[in-house]
Amino acid sequence: MTTDRWSDGAAGPRGRGRPRDPGVDAAILKAALELFVEGGVEAASMQRIAARAGVGKLTVYRRWSSKEELLAQAIESARENLPEVTAEDVEHVPVAELVERAIPATADALAEPGFRAFAAQTLGTSVTHPALMAAYWEHYVLPRRRAIRVMLERAIRDGVLSTDTDVEALIDMMVGAMIYRVLHPPVPDSAELRDYLRSVYRLAGLLP
Amino acid sequence: MTTDRWSDGAAGPRGRGRPRDPGVDAAILKAALELFVEGGVEAASMQRIAARAGVGKLTVYRRWSSKEELLAQAIESARENLPEVTAEDVEHVPVAELVERAIPATADALAEPGFRAFAAQTLGTSVTHPALMAAYWEHYVLPRRRAIRVMLERAIRDGVLSTDTDVEALIDMMVGAMIYRVLHPPVPDSAELRDYLRSVYRLAGLLP
């Protein structure tokens, strides 16, 4: 355990400046995600998460003040494979090229059974556990939507999209289609999803 | 109970030509939907459905051979308020007008808490209970997608959409956006959804 890494007081979700063992954090997040994907929010109690991670309940509570915060971060850890667009990229690379570049990794990530399972469970919680959806939305989805928004605003400046484009609705159409597609039959594989993503981006006006 | 209505052997989901009391059917469907929306597939056992509907378990099994079939129809009954486009309409009314006409009722239906709840539960089941999603998809979603497809094909013939439009992906983008929008915060009301739907249809190229 290294104490100096966390001495600035910005130590993770709770910000208490406690020394943290990243191995323990990872084990807790993994256990939380597994339980959530297997059985939803009900199945993922702090007690069960601690038991599966092989740590005490207090160890979990020291790191996350609520099950919702922990689950929001655990859910996010399942999305790590989704490619991200950096501000640097948006500045220097044309939108069509950025989109084309991201297609293979996005298709692979969407095709994973784990992604489908947690997307299904996450959407399933939005009505039954709005606090979880709110935490997930605020901490993890909104920052990414802002990044996509910057890219679409560049597309507007470049004349790729028209100036009256409703950017938020367009993001919903692209993201909504991807999530909906992997949750309805027949389940697509990665190759089918590459073609599908190309169609979606073309319909969105981002690919020629 | 009227027997003549069902004497043609096409008596409802099981097709056994049994006399049917529509009041009993409605009570069973209502009970199934309530239990499903409250607690998902697990909570909606045939036994509990029968108990809430005030009928015997056998009465339920006589009408639906499986919980999946019953739940698929129950889920569909919650969507009854969504407006449908008839073949007649598609033949005679321009697409932009059809879409514009459907906006108020669609916005009202999407804004209902009941719609959000069952959309969340239905998507939540797609991984955990694929048989339910498959039944729902085949019997209820596909026929509607075919109707939308006919409308979009007319839009292509009319030159409203380009001839190389990927119609299935476009349907996913519109439907996916609507479902995604009502499941993410902040929850929109009916007036906001009318504006939202207009944006979506405009981005899809169906409204000017």
From TrEMBL, chains A, B:
Region of interest: Disordered: 1-22
Organism annotation: Actinorugispora endophytica
Gene3D superfamilies: Homeodomain-like, Tetracycline Repressor, domain 2
Residue ranges flagged as DNA-binding region: 45-64
A GO molecular function held by the record: DNA-binding transcription factor activity
InterPro entries the UniProt entry points to: Homeodomain-like_sf, HTH-type_TetR-like_transc_reg, HTH_TetR, Tet_transcr_reg_TetR-rel_C_sf, TetR_C
PROSITE patterns: HTH_TETR_2
Keywords for this protein: DNA-binding, Transcription, Transcription regulation
Domain of life, per lineage: Bacteria
PANTHER family: HTH-TYPE TRANSCRIPTIONAL REGULATOR RUTR, TETR-FAMILY TRANSCRIPTIONAL REGULATOR
Name of the protein described by the UniProt record: TetR family transcriptional regulator
Occurrences of domain HTH tetR-type (ranges): 22-82
